[in-house]
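#lab-general

N.A. 3:47 PM
ok so I finally got the sequence cleaned up, no stray characters, all 147 residues accounted for. can someone with queue access submit it? mine expired

B.Y. 3:52 PM
send it over

N.A. 3:53 PM
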Amino acid sequence: MNKVDSANDMGVSLLQDDYVSSTNPTGDINESIYITRKVSLENPGSALRVILDINRFASANVKVMYKILRSDDASDFDEIGWRFFNTSGGPDTVANESTTVDDFIEYEYSANDLEEFIAFAIKIRMQGINSAEPPRIKDLRAIALAT
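B.Y. 4:20 PM
back already:
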């Protein structure tokens, strides 16, 4: 587990050259990430909603990101950068940390009023400062909405 949000979190200044922003299309300096496959839509969407059940103690954090392929964009999907849900990757509403290893709490992430899109992917960054208490996730649900 690690928790790197900026080049300053790298510690030694020589290693700061190795920093890769999480918003870059490829790479991430964080050690624990999960990326879904590209989801292609039959009908264009304009909003995203992600629901996760997370077991997270106070020493850990989960940040969720997304990328979309706009309807009018001919770019290579793999070259599109990531965006944070709620500008920081946090859930829509603050949730308490888990109290036991079996305590999974539902977290929701929303992105509304997006450009019309025909494909999307989700990136989950699991961070922490105690490797004995990593965040655990189950029941990932991602929904594209046409609003």
